[in-house]
Design a protein that fits this description.
16 strands
């Protein structure tokens, strides 16, 4: 198949679409498809033709690029699938206007932008764009949800298109041999530092935990707007927190080292369509405590973590229980999570399911189990 993927920016190495969209493109290309990524900024992706377009220097928040729209219009007459990732930029809006009624079928992945929490952020901007953005979703031949929660978000808006429910994939690092036991155990938060992640609730929970667990430290890693990082650091000082480290953004080997050095991972988020950092932690063999704002109920059914409400008292209680577990028990839970990632979240498995949904949308292939009608 000839495939074009659309996303505003994927130049920075990070989680979320900046990781998942390039890896999906790369895996589809490795499976023999002709794949192009059309965007405003991107890094090189093995086997994928990356086509960059300039955006207007004004109204940068809206990512306006006439060149991108014209290129997408041309491509829609030649390719099989145009897969549009994310919402709330004119790059994404353009797909709903220039692709329908041409040769290509339009697939749209909201990628967490339709949750109640996400829709409540920057309401003025979203009210302005919603009539244009809804057209994209309404005219899509297929919608893609990365979790059951995101599927429900889509259906709550009465969007009628079929939905393919396929998670993101995760890369499985090579496990390391036995490491020296450290006297201080590590609770790791590794994600964007952003109000969505509810880091303030984690810090308040740590205030209740630090005296109970003097052999634990809290390590906070991730990029974020300087204002948000400064607010989190100020709250830590205000609460007189001990053994808290702000490690900054970690990428590549440094990020992997942080996961391997952790005994327990935590994500107290308000809202996630998937929660890539959770999958990464489990892939490294680290059990996780995750808020119900992320769609990770499987932590409990797979016995590799805790899935809890993110109010301070509940979060603190779950972390207290997890931190009381012996090292060996946490290690066993982490390996159960690793096996789960290997079984259900390998990139080849994910690409195979996406591929089957594409073929069904084009006609002539049976409806795959991942696709649900209205």
């Amino acid at each position: 198949m000839k495939l074009v993927h659309v996303v505003p920016h994927v130049d920075a190495e990070a989680a979320g679409p900046s990781y998942s969209v390039p890896r999906l493109c790369e895996t589809l290309a490795a499976r023999g498809h002709e794949v192009a990524l059309v965007c405003l900024a991107a890094r090189d992706i093995a086997g994928v033709r990356v086509e960059l377009h300039r955006q207007w220097p004004v109204l940068e928040r809206f990512a306006v690029s006439p060149g991108h729209a014209f290129a997408l219009r041309r491509a829609a007459a030649e390719v099989d699938i145009v897969h549009n990732h994310s919402l709330w930029s004119m790059v994404n809006v353009a797909a709903g206007w220039v692709v329908p009624a041409r040769r290509a079928r339009l697939v749209a992945s909201p990628r967490g932008t339709l949750s109640r929490w996400a829709l409540g952020r920057r309401r003025t901007l979203k009210r302005m764009l919603w009539p244009l953005q809804r057209r994209v979703l309404a005219r899509a031949d297929l919608l893609h949800a990365t979790s059951e929660a995101e599927y429900e978000d889509i259906r709550s808006l009465h969007l009628a298109a079929p939905v393919a429910v396929v998670p993101n994939g995760v890369d499985l690092p090579q496990l390391r041999g036995a490491q020296p036991v450290q006297a201080m155990r590590t609770l790791l938060f590794l994600s964007r530092i952003h109000p969505t992640k509810a880091l303030d609730r984690l810090l308040r929970a740590w205030a209740d935990l630090q005296a109970l667990h003097p052999d634990w430290r809290l390590r906070i890693a991730g990029h974020g707007e300087p204002r948000h990082v400064a607010e989190a650091a100020a709250l830590a000082r205000e609460l007189h927190l001990q053994r808290v480290e702000f490690a900054g953004a970690l990428y590549g080997a440094e990020k992997s080292d942080a996961y391997f050095a952790a005994d327990l991972f935590v994500l107290p988020t308000h809202s996630e369509n998937f929660g890539m950092a959770v999958a990464e932690a489990l892939a490294h063999g680290v059990p996780a405590v995750v808020a119900r704002g992320a769609p990770w109920a499987g932590l409990e059914t797979e016995r590799c973590g805790w899935w809890v409400d993110n109010d301070v008292a509940t979060l603190a209680g779950a972390l207290d229980a997890a931190m009381r577990e012996p090292r060996g028990r946490l290690g066993e839970m982490g390996m159960a999570g690793r096996r789960w990632m290997e079984r259900d979240f390998s990139w080849n498995s994910v690409a195979e399911r996406i591929e089957s949904a594409y073929r069904w949308t084009l006609g002539g292939a049976p409806q795959p189990s991942c696709v649900r009608g209205n």
